[in-house]
Specification:
By secondary structure, this protein is an alpha/beta fold. The protein is built from 13 helices and 12 strands. Strands 1-6-7-8-10-9 form a 6-stranded mixed sheet. Strands 5-4-3-2-11-12 form a 6-stranded mixed sheet.
Length: 351
């Protein structure tokens, strides 16, 4: 609010008069006289001391513009951002992936790769990358592409042969140059540390849009839509909530009974594998539960805690046949990727 020279003089004289007449109660008296708050009165009194009263009427303070947007404009921007973010969130709820053929297809679900770790089984990983060159096979990364140590764990880079720069080169190879036709990349906890997820998304953004996989935080729920109209619903997550020392698939099983219906619930994260197929009579659908162990086969820390490494199930291959006569035959899962690839080739040959 701007004040004229006359206004400033009136304010100053009122303050000075109230100081003389009302003593300790001068601020309240001046506030009543000027119809402003006592706080505003004190603010003016600090600016205009008694000695300056006579000079106040000779000045006119400038009105400075606010350096920020009006709050109404800020709210408008926040509202538009919310609408865009909510639209993006809704678009990811069971998003549709169109498949151009009704021939059987396969998805290799790469368990936690940890491609830069000294314990990464690169001979096996290379073999699975080669298998992904087979017709009809796509790749999906369940998360934790690199170790991506941060914070106090950064010291662990000193205990591995691969530097952080080499780790990012390996991730780039896996995503862009391995020849895998990627369907999905999930960001696990290691990916989410620091700038890890942003770097992976940047690498994905460098790819041709038609070859760029969906890159999702922690989980993805999507539908494979075939020309025949049949759909395969998949709920993939780095991990599902809920664990049991007796059941490696407790979390996925919990999701199958409490979340939306899917043909496959698949996870990684815990560095062990398991498979299970079941029909839910009460919910009237048949589903698979799967967990991929990943490629970290040498793990001194894990073994020191008594977690001895399994030798199978680094990746899970899912074969989806939209022409299958039964619900049970619609999806088949293999812990042996090579065996699954042979099964897929046989099915595609029959088709």
């Amino acid at each position: 609010m701007g004040y004229t020279e006359k206004d400033l003089g009136t304010i100053a004289r009122t303050i000075e008069d109230c100081r003389k007449k009302h003593g300790a109660g001068w601020a309240r008296a001046a506030a009543d006289a000027l119809s402003i708050s006592p706080r505003q009165v004190r603010d003016w009194a600090q600016r205009v001391g008694p000695a300056q009263t006579s000079a106040v009427s000779a000045i006119a303070l400038p009105t400075f513009p606010d350096g920020d947007l009006p709050i109404e404009d800020v709210i408008d921007v926040m509202a538009r951002r919310y609408e865009r973010r909510n639209e993006a969130r809704l678009a990811r709820q069971w998003f549709r992936v169109d498949v151009s053929t009704d021939d059987p297809i396969g998805i290799v679900w790469f368990g936690d790769p940890h491609v830069d770790d000294d314990g990464c089984n690169w001979p096996l990983l290379r073999r699975h990358i080669e298998i992904c060159q087979q017709d009809g096979i796509f790749g999906a990364n369940i998360g934790d592409t690199t170790n991506n140590w941060v914070g106090r764990l950064t010291r662990l880079f000193g205990n591995q042969e691969s530097s952080q720069a080499t780790a990012r080169r390996l991730a780039k190879y896996f995503l862009q140059d391995s020849g895998i036709t990627w369907l999905l990349w999930i960001m696990g906890n290691h990916d989410a540390w620091g700038d890890g997820a942003d770097i992976l998304r940047m690498l994905g953004g460098q790819m041709v849009p038609s070859e760029r996989p969906a890159m999702e935080d922690w989980q993805a729920r999507f539908r494979l839509a075939f020309p025949s109209g049949r759909e395969c619903r998949i709920h993939a997550a780095h991990d599902f909530k809920g664990h049991s020392m007796w059941n490696s698939l407790h979390g996925p099983q919990k999701a199958a009974h409490t979340k939306a219906e899917a043909h496959l619930y698949i996870a990684g994260h815990t560095h062990n594998w398991a498979l299970h197929q079941e029909e839910s009579a009460s919910r009237e659908f048949t589903y698979w539960l799967a967990r991929a162990r990943g490629y970290k086969f040498l793990d001194h820390y894990g073994e020191s805690l008594g977690h001895f490494p399994q030798q199978e199930g680094a990746a899970i291959l899912s074969v989806i046949d939209p022409r299958a006569k039964s619900h049970a035959g619609f999806v088949q899962c293999f812990s042996d990727v090579e065996e699954g690839a042979q099964f897929l080739a046989w099915k595609r040959g029959r088709a």
